[in-house]
Specification:
The chain is mainly β. The chain has no helices and eleven strands.
Length: 150
Amino acid sequence: MSNFMFGGSALALDIGARAHQALSAGDVVQINPLVGSTDDGMTTQDCVVGTGPVQIAPVGVVLGSSGKSSFVTGEDVLIRVLGIVDAAFAGAVTAGHVAIMTNAARTLTSAGNATWAANSNSVHIVAVAHETLAGAGTAQVYFNGLGSWG
């Protein structure tokens, strides 16, 4: 019998990655799923929605700490793929609304209501907002960056 247990009300999943360019805590990024001469399956990239291999790539929010909130290209980062996290928003958001990622954005956008359905070719629902923001900034969300879409 295992003594491995999860605490709290939900699982949190963080994974290590390497910054593809300068990143800040709260940025939404994706793991580049391609492995080549410059990619090793661990490097981040700006979010790409609805095309090819990136449909199965994990998406996450860059985590920081009280002493570290910015990261340079090539630096190791930790990203929250599943669980509660403070994520960057491009504009206003209302608590309880879903949040979406779009192509080439490192911020989330409010989708307006919790029953909104994503267009798989241009956007992907990744979070539910826990806080209301009047404009751009960071807000606590429940994030799920493990989904795939076709």
